[in-house]
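Continuing the batch. This is chain 6 of the set; chains 1 through 5 are on the previous pages. Same settings as before, nothing changed between runs. Recording input and output for traceability.
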Amino acid sequence: MVMAPAMTIAQFTERYRLGNPFSLDNDKAYQAWRDIKLEDYPDKLEQLIVAVNDPADLTRAEFNAVHALVVKTNMAIYAGNTGIDPDRKIPSKLGKRFGLTALDDNMGADDGVTSLKVVTGQWRGGYIPYTNKPIHWHTDGYYNPPDLQIRGLLLHCVRPAAQGGENALLDHELAYIHLRDINPDYIEALMASDAMTIPANIDKGKEIRPERTGPVFSVMADGNLHMRYTARTRSIKWSEDARTRAAVKALAEFLESESPWIFRATLESGQGLVSNNVLHDRSGFEDDKARKRLLYRLRYYQRVAGS
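Output for chain 6:
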């Protein structure tokens, strides 16, 4: 399949002069953008994978191939030849190549690079990303404050688990399309400023992070769509509004469907994900003595440049 030429939101609004397609008052712009978005949209995982030599030093052709996919689908998987090289600079250099420099130095990160592996006997062991348990659908940093939202997400696999550890991936713009096509009221509800509340993170009586309330979908200053979401049922409060509850139910059903827009991939050594913080989950996994899962995760306050 030959993918239709990708078009950014900025290019769309400039070329068609229809305004922002994410405005519920602008159905003409939405329908035009929707047609372009879905034209020749990938329907197989292989169409998201770009073979590269060294992820830390992409050729111009390799860069262009990855970038075109991100513009079209908000994500791309690179398959590099670095194998089990644990050099943390590999994903850092790759991120900088795509204009990603503003790292979220969250509490589990080391200079912005988080080692995702099973940890026992430390505080990290109390958080699911550092266990082998499944992680439900989410976007990263859904509990961050409004001015520090995670726009870009990069994963780099050093070593996969012996079994499991598969990620499901969904372009958040397609989640938006699905819900808006069903009922635009769902989008209005999920754009409300009080749609989703993440309670404060309190450990041993100490507040580590305050309560955070905000929308699921929002439109950024550059016109791009942003999404914050978690499918968890504990430690979350949804608006009591009936439309919000219906929208959340419709979204959860879609995420558990067999939609061809949902891709499933188990990253192998040297492979990684470049994305604008798309929806994703992770299946449970099992390590053995020879294969202990290690992925590097980098969160950014920026989108991939030019996407």
